[in-house]
Amino acid sequence: MSTEERRLAAIVFTDICGFTELMSRDETKAMALLEQQRALLKPIISNFNGEWLKEIGDGVLIAFPSPVKAVTCSLEIQRILSHNSELTLRIGIHIGDVIQKDGDVFGDAVNIASRLEPLAEPGGICVSERVHEDIKNKPDISTSFQEEQLLKGIDKPIKVYSIFTQMGTTPKSAEKPAETKTKPNYVLFAGIGTLILIGLFFFITSQGKMAGSDYDSKSIAVLPFNNLSNDADDEYFADGMTEDILTELSKIQDLMVISRTTIMKYKGTTKTIREIGKELEVANILEGSVRRVGNRVRITGQLINTENDHHLWADKFDRDIEDIFAVQDEVATAIANVLRIKLSNKEARLISLSQTKSIEAYDLYIKGRSFSYSYSLPNIYQAIKYFNEAINIDPNYALPYAGIARSKTTLTFFLFHDDDFSKEQLKEAKFHAEKAITLGPEEAEVQFTMGLYLNRLNDHSSYKYLKKAIELNPSHAHAHDEIGDYYLDIHGDLDQAIDWYEKALKLDPDLVPAMALRIYTILMKGQLKRAQVLIDEGLKRHPSVVYYSTIKHAIMMMGHKYQDAYNFLKSRESDYQTAERMTDFYLGLGQSLIMLNKMDELDDILGKLKKTKYYDLTHEYRYLKNLRLYYEGDYQTAIKGFNAFDNSEMIVLMKTLRPVLSDISHYWKAKSYLELEEFENTIDELNQFRPNHNGSTLLLIFDEFWPKRNYLKGLAYEGMGDKRSAQESYEKFLKDWSDADDDLLEIMDAKERLRNLKQAS
Description:
The chain folds into four domains: 4-176, Nucleotide cyclase, GGDEF domain (Alpha-Beta Plaits), CATH 3.30.70.1230; 219-348, 3-Layer(aba) Sandwich (Rossmann fold), CATH 3.40.50; 359-473, Serine Threonine Protein Phosphatase 5, Tetratricopeptide repeat; 512-582 and 619-760, Serine Threonine Protein Phosphatase 5, Tetratricopeptide repeat, CATH 1.25.40. Helices cover 56% and strands 13% of the residues. Strands 1, 2, 3, 4, 5, 6, 7 and 8 form an eight-stranded mixed β-sheet that branches. Strands 9, 10, 11, 12, 13 and 14 form a six-stranded mixed β-sheet that branches. The protein is globular.
């Protein structure tokens, strides 16, 4: 019989620095280190009335009756281990309610302590504000405020404090070379001569970390080059130089390069190099300027260390405009040399690769590219115009073909209501993507464009092109993002999708599609709390992005906060108008009103939807009408309505790009049959789901229906009296949503039903 105990405790979480690396190198030595840790720590913990709860890998979880005991014991541990060159710990401490059950321990105190530990220096201790309040007046303990951190899995930011004794206990990070993720020890540096200090700032470890830095020394951001030309219209040329130098650098495997989307927000910035470096978490910044006069161009560049503002490299190039490609290559090669990166033969060849000899064609291409980044119909058409002009000058120039293919693919999202138009755009996208592949197979952008086009068709072969793009350009954030879409849309693998979105965001923190779909996928896993924290971060970073507003509304709806959802979306109406996404806005409002049972107000929303373009085909209008029927209890009519919805011209067309839309109808018909107690029909509808269903951002708030299908199956089987099948369905549901928040209504109900079924059997 299991026992459960709840109590208040100070939780200490420890971790051995460098253990993972040691384990991969010398397993026997690593295991011996664990034994040494047990032998040294257990007597100390016992002396301070601590309880050794459990080991988690190389970490130890310890409970104390008070924060003072926890801190004094931790200080004693670090003091004793300061003489042990092999065993170095990081320690995190928090106080809160914990639950002990069946030999295990749970609770926020455990989670927060484990998140604080990585923030400590090797040999150091980090504590939460709650612990700090209890120890701040102790004469033998001193603290310093570190920062306010948003910890993984925790809703609110936590104030983090570092601890040191007034006796002058120095963290071990000052005694030996810093490890990954350590901060500079300024107390130590203050007593070192100027020459040594400079040497430390320039020393690059064999692991690729700048000594005293949190950031990989082989990481860089290329800030937008200043346009110093007399003609303001040459701004596109300066931006083009920025992007092309960035692209050349991105071909280097060992160099992490921040992508275009993020760096362009620093255009005209007044922020310091240090501030930008901290925001982007890069060790180096490349900045420069471009001046074009007639057929001459002057390019200046300087590489700056973000830790100390020291100039690592600087150069000036006065060249004929025909030499522009050579300058780009020289800059990339020079930076690789400064950062001690040895280029492979392949990398050197790719950097020197030139797709055109025509400066005129290149100029037209970068003009088109500058327009293509603005997702509006006029700009996309303007981009295509310039790309075609570039091809007319140089028919063998691969990149403009790729630009047209990408633009044509994008157009299908704006004008998907027109079946003939969409088919024609996709046909032209295919032609230009294939032409680009033929002419420039070693251009990452060419491979990416083919992958993008195939992704829109849910074609499995998209993956090989996207992977090839990353092979050619390891810092291609958009390719990482599209592989996330590949796993989400084609395979329904949520974990893989999240992993790739996070890789994309590391390269481009401002890549909105990756951020939005990462949060959306987390929401699909039933992790509302985690999604809430991330969406608030996204809205803080990009307050007017409608995708973020749509997701925040969805989170509120899934949390049954219907009035809050309505009020929030209503406050964002102007953003949707600007983005010309009013159908999305009305859909969200309509869903909220249905759940609030405000059907008169819903009529107004339906009326506005009817006035939108293509209203006779608008899926949002039809969907809301059918949803209303369901919640009014007219289940038979709702079934007929969703049958018509699934077979409508609009949905048949859209299903070629988003096959998931058919599952929406099956889901609501299944729910209707369940209410009518037609259980076999319920199961039949649920069995028609696609095997790798992923969801749809078009109807976001109900996308959790993918795992819920097994929950509904369980209810239907129970209604039929098939207890065994019901039990299996609930178990599948709980497995599908194993990472979901525990307090979701369906999770709690499924667990209770499963428990009752097992007891009955």
